[in-house]
Amino acid sequence: MRQGGAYTKGLTYPYPFDFEDVIWGYPVQDIATAMQDLMDDTMPDAFEPLQDAFRAGYECHSPWPERYPGEVDMFRMGFVLKGANNKAFDGEEALHQHVLAVAPMVEAFFNTGQLRKL
């Protein structure tokens, strides 16, 4: 075992397997998880070009899996709301600060249909 996951054995070389985010779902959900992690880990001005590069690379191998424009961002918004739920366990002040921090991003999403780091 390693922190955050495990390695499978018996293969030519080990493959990481992350138990934290294992779910049964659709490719669009997997992309939403990756894009949300990317947004969380990058500066606001770096996110859009990296997201575009990811999509271009993906589309070299497979069709983009969204059934409608904005489906990835819709799933990503679910992660933002889940984050608020998680902060509620840290106490009222932590939740209050989290809501203040994400409120502009959530409002922009409802106005544009795009989830972007502000």
How would you explain this protein's 3D organization?
The protein is mainly alpha-helical. 59% of the residues lie in helices and 3% in strands. It contains four helices and two strands, in the order ββαααα. The chain has helices spanning 27-41, 44-59, 71-88, 92-112, and strands spanning 6-7, 16-17. Strands 1-2 form a two-stranded antiparallel sheet. The protein is globular, with a radius of gyration of 16 Å.
Beta fraction of the residues?
A: under 5%
In terms of structural class, how would the helical and strand content be classed?
A: mainly alpha
- How are the strands of the largest sheet arranged? 1-2
Overall residue-averaged pLDDT value:
84
State the low-pLDDT regions, or none: 1-8
Could you tell me the radius of gyration in angstroms?
16 Å
What percent of residues adopt helix (DSSP H or I)?
55-70%
Give the H and E element order.
Answer: EEHHHH
Distance between the termini: 37 Å
The count of β-strands is 2
Number of helices: 4
The description of the largest β-sheet is: 2 strands, antiparallel
Principal-axis shape: globular
Topology of this structure?
Layout: E1 6-7, E2 16-17, H1 27-41, H2 44-59, H3 71-88, H4 92-112
Antiparallel strand pairs: 1-2
Feature tags:
118 residues, mainly alpha, 3% strand, disordered N terminus
Give the structure's gist in a few sentences:
The protein is mainly α. It has helices at 27-41, 44-59, 71-88, 92-112, and strands at 6-7, 16-17.
